[in-house]
Amino acid sequence: MYIKIMSEITKRSNLLTFVSFILFVIVFSNGLFIYSISERLKNDAKAVNDAGIVRGSIQRVTKLALAGMDPSDKIREINSMLETLGREENRLEGFLRSGRFNGIQKDLLQKWAQLQQGLEGLDTDGGPENRRRIVDLSEQCWEAANGLVFETQFISEIKLSFLNYVFVIIGFNIAFVVISIFLIRKHVRNELEFLASHDPLTMLLNRYSYNIILRQDLNRTRRYHSNLSLLMIDIDHYKSVNDRFGHDSGDEVLKKIAQIIAGTVRSSDAVFRIGGEEFAVIVLNANMEQARQLSEKIREAVYSFDFDKVGKITVSIGFAECREED
Hints:
The chain has helices spanning 2-66, 72-93, 99-120, 128-161, 163-197, 207-223, 238-245, 247-264, 288-304; strands at 228-235, 270-273, 278-284, 315-322. By secondary structure, it is of the alpha+beta class. Helix 3 (99-120) runs antiparallel to helix 4 (128-161).
């Protein structure tokens, strides 16, 4: 019985540890996933914005150059944004990296390089044909930049769709947390009930449980016209064990005798520690002779056990029967 109780406590503790670990893993993974998605979307918003600025700035650069104004500041701004956009795309896309995006970006960079060369040549060739060529290159750059904007938005929308999984994970986490709280509360309640009804040293039922169970069994015996026997067990000369060998040795004797008694009686019998060195056993459906036989069996089991340095220990056992007519 002692071993069964300890095994059950170990199982519950292991279950609680396992549930706590799984809960930690899920919450941590969920946090990483949400953080990853939020970071991607935050940087995607900047990428979409930069692509739109590049698209509009290309037209403005062309207008400034054709008007005879210096567009060098705007050109540097566009070059910086294209470089940044490329870095963000490489860093953010990951497994969603689009080959079409790379093609559009490469085409935009080529046309932008051609447009810059054309703008630089305006100083030496400002004729109508060259100006029309620059306008045509500007339109090609705008179309490539416009395609880049739409492709960036498309990729960002794909990432946004992953937020649906976030809600699924959150729902799963809520369910898991509720189940975990239920299991933990049940575990704590069972532990408190166990501590309230059992002796902490021997793990046997305590005197409080003895009073309740004895009253219930007596009522049941009368109701169903059966009989019940009660064994009262006392360790002989237990005080001298504590005086000679110390209280630690005395505690070990108590635990060993508790195990011997619990291992000797039937599984239907209830074993209690009701005092310092006093134990009780409620034996259901047992008459006086059966109680005597069980008492002798317990006495012999205790006497035959070697208690290490303490040596032999004996117990005194009294027994009584509650009959139907009592």
